[in-house]
Amino acid sequence: MLPLRNGAWKWLAVAGMMMAILSGCEPVKMGVLNPKGPVAQKQYDLIIWSVVLMSVILIVVFVLFVVILVRFRASKLSKDYEPPDVEGNTFLEIVWTAIPVLIVVALAVPTVTSTFDLEKSPSPNKKPITIEATSAQWKWIFKYPEQGIETVNYLKIPANVPVRFKLSSHDAMNSFWIPELGGQEYTMADMPMFLWLEADKPGKFIGRGNNFSGRDFAKMEFTVEAKKQSDFDSWVDHVKKTAPKQSEKEYKALLKPGTVDLKTYSSYPKSAEVKEPNHGGMEHGGMDMDHSKMKHEDMEGMEDMPGMDHDKN
């Protein structure tokens, strides 16, 4: 058996790593690569289109690179060879100017179109349900204004029904994300943001806070269950009959920094409702020009963040 040449072990190691990665591709199909609703599907299609287009460009560049190396390598050319002068070649200048423009257009048009489409209900012919999602250190609070109930760290939604999330934060800025149902959106204090999502069939998913917000930010996960409309209605009725009512004191205690278990309430105080800014705001982005103002008590818990030194006025 001949000894491996110098450097061969390095390439064998790289090949082994690639095989190990590729052998695990099937379980990787999750999150954004496993869309379970119309919003996630549209975003998935956009990702695939971008990857395919960029892959084609990469292959063309590599092929041209190899062709040029082979065709114009020094060993085949005479010593007095001079490359042709292409300065002022109108055709070539048009080609290498037009190609990047076409690439940008091919990426920009579907991206802009999809972005504006996602500002609207994914199923305009269906009546939506509104859910208020509030991030607090370090928990998620979900209020159902139409049903008058509240859950903590878990969420139930009807399948095949568009859900209009009204997002806010009690303290630190965070990001609301259910990867299999759609992209993420920020939660900010005193600046409601909006996000449309929909599950196309019953199922269970994982949601999370996707923005660093202090000591226990990694624990800000919540479960999401999409149920048939009849099952969702039955669950709401069961909560109203069996779950306790939430008092003002309990709600204020819930907002204090810390982790809590799953909780369910058959009602919540008026102060828990997400307030609209007086000057209005744009949906899905809430781009009103007044910056959110954090109250003194809202800064509680932020001092646990590494490298953060907060002054108290």
From TrEMBL:
Q: Which reaction does it catalyse?
A: 2 a quinol + O2 = 2 a quinone + 2 H2O
Give the keywords, sorted: Cell membrane, Electron transport, Membrane, Oxidoreductase, Respiratory chain, Signal, Transmembrane, Transmembrane helix, Transport
UniProt keyword annotation of Oxidoreductase present: yes
Q: What is its EC number?
A: 1.10.3.-
GO CC, one annotated term:
plasma membrane
Q: Name one Pfam family in it.
A: COX2_TM
MF (Gene Ontology): copper ion binding; cytochrome bo3 ubiquinol oxidase activity; cytochrome-c oxidase activity; oxidoreductase activity, acting on diphenols and related substances as donors, oxygen as acceptor
| PROSITE patterns to which the protein is assigned, alphabetical | COX2_CUA (PS50857), COX2_TM (PS50999), PROKAR_LIPOPROTEIN (PS51257)
What is the annotated localization of this protein?
A: Cell membrane
Report the family membership. Belongs to the cytochrome c oxidase subunit 2 family.
Q: Know the name of this protein?
A: Quinol oxidase subunit 2
Classification from the root reads: Bacteria, Bacillati, Bacillota, Bacilli, Bacillales
